[in-house]
Write a structure and sequence with these properties.
By secondary structure, this protein is mainly alpha-helical. The protein is built from 7 helices and no strands. Pfam families: DUF2390.
């Protein structure tokens, strides 16, 4: 990774962790992930791009972002998440300290995989010039909406998530 991409990756990861830890942000992100298939890491990177780099990403650029991380998301992140979720859900695999330990290890691996996805997207962002104007709430709202819309198109269904978009945009704008 170039120095610029490394700096962007570090700043983006710190931003993502900070935003995700805000009250209700993780619940909103997980709702968007569960209900419409939003890639939360890609969403957080898109929000970083608009709020910290002034990039008003177009739907075409959001599709490019998705193409950059899609193989990683589908072949690494999602399988780890499925296994972790199965272990968390209960059933025949959910009892015993060994299972909890394994689930914790898988959760840590999933987080590490998301960090590497962040790095992939940071390399993509490094090739984009910074925006010249600070982003407003409307810019943030539009980018979040475009990421959600792209996920909905991939899933083939549209669910009303306007309140989730508005809440997350407001948190990112503060």
């Amino acid at each position: 990774m170039t120095d610029d991409a490394t700096d962007i990756a570090e700043a983006c990861w710190a931003f993502a962790l900070q935003l995700y830890q805000r009250p209700s942000a993780s619940a909103i992100c997980l709702k968007l992930q569960a209900e419409v298939g939003v890639d939360v890491m890609m969403l957080l990177v898109a929000i970083f791009a608009v709020t910290r780099r002034g990039l008003r990403l177009s739907p075409v650029e959001i599709a490019e972002m998705s193409a950059v991380c899609e193989p990683w998301r589908e072949q690494i992140v999602q399988p780890l998440r499925r296994v972790r979720t199965i272990l968390k859900a209960g059933g025949p695999f959910a009892s015993g300290a060994g299972i909890e330990s394994l689930r914790g290890q898988i959760k840590a691996s999933e987080l590490a995989a998301e960090r590497l996805e962040n790095d992939l997207l940071a390399r993509w962002l490094a090739a984009k010039p910074r925006g010249s104007q600070p982003a407003g709430l409307g810019d943030i709202r539009r980018v979040i909406g475009d990421v959600v819309s792209a996920a909905q198109r991939r899933q083939g269904e549209a669910i009303d998530v306007a309140n989730a978009i508005e809440s997350l945009a407001s948190m990112a704008y503060e």
